[in-house]
Write a structure and sequence with these properties.
8 strands, 2,3-Dihydroxybiphenyl 1,2-Dioxygenase, domain 1, alpha/beta, single chain
Length: about 120
């Protein structure tokens, strides 16, 4: 079976704020705009779709929500992203090695408090 990537679709409360954050600040390419309330972003390894659903379902964020991870090749690339974003985003956790996993990362909070991780693995 051939696969052509994957998309995770997530609800948001303000699609314009989400588009501004993911496209203009984080720098993700908009791959598709399926309506005024649904955008798909290319992460380089798959896709994130965000929508303001008609049924007004709540975001899957916060303490019990999902963590969206962006993967980079090495610690230097993660640190470059941190330097680029530290004054533009709400930093949730500064760059550090994870105590239990071979991961170096930092976290920001996006719109609707989605937790977004910038990481490199196998460090």
């Amino acid at each position: 079976m051939l696969k052509n990537g994957s998309i995770i679709f997530l609800p948001c409360t303000d699609i314009n704020e989400t588009v501004h954050f993911l496209h203009d600040i984080i720098g993700l390419e908009i791959t598709q705009k399926q309506s005024d309330s649904l955008y798909i972003f290319d992460t380089g390894y798959g896709y994130w779709g965000f929508s303001r659903y008609a049924d007004l379902r709540p975001p899957l964020s916060g303490q019990q929500g999902v963590c969206l991870s962006m993967n980079y090749g090495n610690i230097e690339e993660v640190n470059r992203q941190y330097e680029r974003l530290k004054n533009q985003c709400r930093i949730f956790k500064e760059p550090a090695r994870h105590p239990d996993f071979p991961v170096y990362s930092f976290f920001v909070l996006g719109p609707d408090d989605y937790l977004i991780e910038f990481q490199t693995v196998n460090v």
